[in-house]
Amino acid sequence: MAWNEIVCAVLLALGCVFSLAGSLGLLRFPDFYARLHAAGKTDSLAQALIFGGLLFVSPNWGVSFRLVAIALLLLFTAPTATHAITKAARIDGLPPWTKE
Amino acid sequence: MSEALGIYNYWIYIILMMIGFYGVIAKMNLIKQAIALGLFQTGIFLFYISMAVVDGGTAPIWTTVGDGSEKFLGPYDNPLPHVLILTAIVVSVSVLAVALALIINIKRTYGTIEYDEIEALERQEGGNDA
Amino acid sequence: MSEVLLIDSVLLLLVTICAVAIIEVRSLYAVAMLTSVYSLLMALVWTNMHSMDVAFTEAAVGGGISTILLIGTLVHTRRDEKPAKRRLHLPALLVTLLTGGALIYGTFDMPRFGDPNATIHHYRVPEMMAQNVGFVAEVPGKQTPPEGSCRRRGWCRRSIRTSRRASTPSTPSTPRPSTPSTPSPSTPAATPPDDFNGHVPNSVTSLLAAYRGYDTMFETTVIFTAGVSLIMLLRRPRRRDEEEDAGAPLRGQVILRVMTKLFIPFILVFGFYVITHGELGPGGGFQGGVILATAFILYALIYGRKALFRILPSKVLDVLAAVGVLVYSGTGFACLLLGGKFLDYSVLNKASPGDGEALGMTLVEYGVGITVCTVMIIIFNQLAEEQAKAS
User: Alpha-carbon distance B54 to A86, whole Å?
Assistant: First the structure.
C-alpha cells in the first residue's frame, strides 16, 4: 500500500467518524437549533476531510481541481443553507430550548 | 445467494411500484396521489436502469487510456435504457407540474383537495339541482 | 457477488423505507422534503449502476425543481393531509398485493441482474450502434465509410464475443487482447462505432441526439406543452400594477443575498458547461437546462420576482420556450437543406462528418436546454404568481 493510499484511508475514516457524530447529534440533541448545529458543523469538517483524502489518490490535475471545487462549493453553501433554515425557524417563532 | 440477489433489484422495482400504486388508490389527498404517481414512475425507471447493467461494466462513455491509442476500458453498460429514462425523468416533472396546476384549480373551485370531500360537494350540488 | 449489488441492496432498502414514509406521513411539507431525499437516494442508485446522465438529471430535477414546485403548491392548498378514517385501505392493499404477486412471478423469467448475455444487450443493439454512427454503407447523404470500417463493424461483434467469453466460466482468465482469432482491441481501428471519430465519446448523448433524435425532439415538445398548459391553467389577465408588486424581495437577509450574488455566475457557467460538454461527458440539454433554471429561480426567491421580470420579462420567457423547440427542429431542417436527411448531422460539416455530428448535437442540446430552462422558470412563475394572489 502506497503512502498516499494510507493517508487517504485515514482521512476518509476521520471524515466518516465526524459524519457519524453529526448524525448521532441529529438524533440525540434536544431541539431543532441544537440538532442543526450538530449536523451543520460536523458535516462541513467531514466533507473537507473526505475530499482532502480523495485529493491524495486523484489520478491527475483535472480530477484534483474538480475535488477542490466541489469542496469549496460545499464549504460555502452548506453553512449558508444551515443559516437560512435557522433564520426561517427563528422568524417562524420557534423558541430555542432552555434548561428550564 | 448470487441467484437470489440477481432478481432482488426487480423485486425492489415491483415493491416501489406497488407502494406508489397503493398511494394512488388509497390516498384521498390529491397532492399525495400526484407524488404516489411519481413513486410509481421511479419504480419503472429502476427496472430499466437495472436491465442496462452488465457485470464489471462502466459508464457508457467511450474512454481512451493513455495517449489516446484507443484502449477501451472494457465492457460498458447498455446506454439505450439510460437515454429512455433520462428523457422520462424530465417529462415526469412536467407531468407533476401540470398535475399541481390542476390541483390548484380544483382548490380554487371546490376549496379542498381531498377527493372524498370533493365528491360529497358534487353530490350535494347534484341534489340541489334535482 | 459484485460490489454494485452490495451497495445497491443497502441503497434500495433505504429507498423503500423512504417510499413507505412518503405514503404514510401526513404533514405534506414533510412529504415534500422526503421526496427530495428520495430523489437524492435514487441519484445515488443510478450512479452506482453507472448511469451518470440519469443520476445527474434525477438530482437536478427530483432534488431541486420538483421540491420547489411541491412547496409552491402547498403554500396555497393545505399543509396537512386529512386524517384517514381507516389506517389501511383494504381493497387497495388487495389489488396491489395481487398485481405485485403477478409481477414478481414474472421476474423469475428475467435474466440475472448484470448478465452480459441478456437479450437487451444483443438483440439489435450492435446494428443500432453501427447505424447511429452514420457510416451505413451505400446510403446517400451518410458519411462515407472511413478506412477499415468493416473492422469497425467487427468491433460490435467482437465486443459481444468478448463479453460473452468473459461471462463464461470456462475461460475466465483469458486476457482479451491475447486471443489470436480476433484482432486486439488496442489496435487503432477498434473505436466504438458511435463515437464519431472521437468527437462524441458519451454514447448516451449520441443515442439521445442521433439515434433517438426524433424521440428527443418530441420529448422537448412535451415539455413545451407542459409549459403551455401551465400558462393556460393558471395565468389570468394581469393588470399593469400587479406585475409591479410581484413577490417581495427578502429584506434583512444579508448572508443569503451575498451568497446568492456570489454563486449565480458559477451556477450559470456550470449550466452552460453541462450543456456544451454533453457529448464528451455526463450532461446535456436536459440537465443543463434545469441547472440554468435553478439559477433564475434562486434569484427570484431571494430578490423577488420583480427583479426576475426585469431581466427576463414573462413575454421573453414565453417566446424563448418556443425558440428552443425551433432550434431543435431548425437543426433538422438545416440538415434537409444541406442535402441530408432530417436530423442527419453529418452533412453540417462536409469536410469532417464527425465534426458535423458533434456540431449538430451541440445545437440540438442547446435547443433542449433553452426549452427546459424557460419552461421550468415559467412553471415556477405561474405557481408563485398564484401564491402572490392568495396572500
Answer: 45
Verify whether the Cβ–Cβ distance B86 to C166 is below 8 Å: no
ipTM of the complex: 0.90
| Owner of C-alpha cell 449502476 | C49
pTM: 0.83
How many Cα atoms within 13 Å fall on the side-chain side of residue C124? Answer: 5
In the block, which residue shows the cell 441530408?
Answer: C340
C50 contacts B55 by C-beta, under 8 angstroms: no
Question: Which residues of chain A does C266 touch, with a Cβ-Cβ cutoff of 8 Å?
Answer: 73
pLDDT bracket for residue A40 (50, 70, 90): confident
Q: For residues C49 and A53, what is the distance between their CA atoms, to the nearest angstrom?
A: 24
Cross-strand partners of B72: B64
Q: Which has the closest alpha carbon to B20: B42, B3, B5?
A: B42
Q: How many CB atoms lie within 10 A of CB C275?
A: 25
Q: Which helix (H) or strand (E) holds C192?
A: none
Q: Residue A80 and residue C253: Cβ atoms within 8 Å?
A: no
Q: Following CA atoms C260, C321, C215, C191 in sequence, which dihedral angle do they give, to the nearest 10 degrees?
A: -50
Per-residue pLDDT of C184-228, as tens digits, reads 333 333 445 555 666 777 888 888 888 788 989 999 999 999 999
**Nearest by Cα to B103 from C42, C182, C334, C76:** C76
Q: How far is Cα C300 from Cα C150, in angstroms, rounded to an integer?
A: 55
CB contact under 8 A, C259 and A77: yes
